[in-house]
Amino acid sequence: MEDDGSYKRGRKKMGMSRKPEKQGQGRSFDAGVSKNASGRGSNRESYSAPQTVVRKQADPETAKYFSEIANLFESDGIDIEERSSLCSNALEETRGKELELATDYIISHTLQTLVEGCEVDCLCAFLRSCAKNFPLIAMDKSGSHVAESAIRALSKHLQESDVYAVIEDTLNTICKVIVKNPVDLMCDCYGSHVLRSLLSLFKGVPLDSSEFRMRKSSSALPERFNFKAPRSDADVSRHVIPGFPDLLKFLVSGMLKCARNNIKTLQVDQYSSLVLQTTLKLLAEDEEELLQIIPILIGCTREDIVEENSIETTIVRDVLGLMKETAFSHLMEVVLEVAPEVLYNGIFSKIFRNSLFDLSSHHCGNFVIQALISHTRDQDQMEMIWEELGSKFKDLLKMGRSGVIASFVAASQRLHSYEEKCCQALAAAVHSSNESSTCIVPRILFLDGYFNCEDKSNWNWPSGVKMHVMGSLILQEVFRFQIEFIQPFITSITSLTADNVLEAAKDPGGARVIEAFLSSDASAKLKRRLVMRFYAVYFPGFVDILES
After folding, report:
1. pLDDT in tens, 530-542
2. pTM to 2 decimals?
C-alpha cells in the first residue's frame, strides 16, 4: 500500500525553499485534479473538476501586517504568554479574508504559525468563519498546510479540559460543508490528505499514525507472512485523544452517499483510493459499517455478496478488471484485510473463483491475490486456491510473482493445510527430479538471478549479490513447517559451503533464513553441521579440535 507522495513533496517548513509567486493578477486554483489521476490513460468515466475559482489577492496593507507578524516570530523576542496572545489577535485580523490569506504562498506560512499558537477559542472561531471555504482552502497547495496545521492544533487542544464541546461544534460546522460535495476533496491531491487527517481526528488516533497513513511494505510483509502478530481490534482502538464517533459516522455517511453516484471515478482515482483505504482501516472494528461500505466500493449490494444469489457477471468482470488498476488494487487489499468474515467469504467465492492465476500474473492484481491468500479463513478456501495455483508455482516464480507463493506458503503453515503438497510444489518449482536437492535453497535465495539465467543447469551461487527478499521470506516460512515436510530444504541448507554460509550470514535476508533453520525442528546434529561451516571460516583450528 502507498501514501500520496505528491502531497509530501509539496510540504515545506517555514522559510525553506518557498519562493513568492509573481505579483499582479489574482492566482487561480482548481478545486480538483485532472483525471485520470492514475496516469494510465484509462477510457473509464473521468471526474469533471468544478469550475476554476479565482481568489482575490491579499491587499498590500494586510500583506504588510502579516509580514511584520512573521518578522516578530522570527526574532525570537516573544515569550510564551505573549506569543499566544499575539497569535490570537493576529488570527482575528483574518476575519472575512481567510480564503485569500490561507492560499497565499507567503502568508500561509504565518497562518500556520498562528493556528498552532493561538488559544482554542480563537482557533475555533477562525475555522467556523472560514468553514464555507474550507474545501477550497484544503484543496490549495498552500491552504492545505494551513488546514492540516489547524487540525493538528485541535488534536493537541483536546488534551485540555472543557474544550471538547467547542471543538466538536466547530468540526460539525466544517463537516456539514464537506458532505455537500465530498468527491472534490476525495479526488484532490491536497484535499484528500486533509480529509484523511479529519477522519483520523474523528476516530481519535494520532494524525501521523502509520496505521492509517498507508504503512510501507517493509512493515506489512512480516505481518502478512506470519512473522509479526496481526494488528488486533484492541490495537486499532487504542486512541490517545478523544474521538468524535458521531462526526465520523456523519462524514463517512456523506462520503458514501456521493460515492454511489461517482463510484466509477472513486474506484480508479489514486487520491480517493487513499481516503477510502484510511476510512476502511479506521472502521476495521465496526462490522455493521463495513457491511454497508464494502459492497458500495465493489459496485454491488450487500445481499449480492452475503446471500445465496450470485453477483451479476458484468459486475464480476468489472471488478476483476479494476483489480488490475493501481488505485483499486490498493483499495481491494485493504477491503480484504478488514472485511467481516461473511463478506470475505462471499467475495472469495463469487468474485475470485476461476480468476486466481490470471490476477496472480498481473503486476497489480498479484498484490490483491497476496492479500486474499493472507486472509484466507478455512480449509475449503485453501482447497480452491490450491486447485487454481498449486500447479502454477514455477510459472509464477518465472513471472516474478514470488509474493503470491510466499503468501500461500504462509497461509498453509498458519492453517496447517496443504503443507506437504505446498513444500513439494515449491521444491519442484526450482529443481527437477533428476537434480540434487542441494540446489533448492541457493536458487530460492537468488530467485530472480536463477530464473533470469538462460542456462539454468549451469547456474551457480553468485558471489557478492544481494539475496532475494521474497525468496528469503519464503525460506523462513518453510523452516517453520514440520520436519517431515521439508527434508529437501534441510538437505540443501546443510550442504552449503563454508563460503556460502558466510555470505548468507552477512546478508539480512540470508541471516534470517539461517536463524529460521536453527529455530526449526531439525535435529541438533544437522544444525551443528551448518554452524561448523561458519566456524570453519573464522576458527579453523577450533573446528579441528572439535572434530578430532
Report:
1. 988 777 666 555 4
2. 0.85
